[in-house]
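debug: dumping io for the single-chain case to check the tokenizer round-trip. Nothing else runs in this session.
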Amino acid sequence: FQTVQPVQMADLELAADSQVLHAIPVGFECCMLYVYKGRGTVGGMAVEPQQVALLDATDTERRGLAISAGRDGLSAMLFAGRRISEPIAWHGPFVMTSDAEIRQTIREYRTGNFPPRRVDWDYRDSAAAPKKVTKNDTMC
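debug: decoded output
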């Protein structure tokens, strides 16, 4: 898929009491980590399931991010990128730039036209990915 600005997305699964150091790419100004399972710390802040840690990545001296899992491990999604300074509208799982786009997306979802096309492999298992992805393939 294509984005307006470069982005980084990572699905992290840390074993119990483990730690990973992640470097935010240069040029990326904002970063957030959504914890969906387990507890731990992110940049020294305690996190637990269904919490989002918002991180300021504008300081070029502090690009390293320490993520530590608690005794039950930690599973989280990391998103980093550049600010695009566009408005944000959201409703449930849908995030767009206007209420009109949200309404259109909900109509498409209800009629089975959103997402436009799902991949035919398990995106959560990298080994299941096709060896070559063409530019016509869409991942949702």
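debug: round-trip ok. The longest strand covers residues 64-81.
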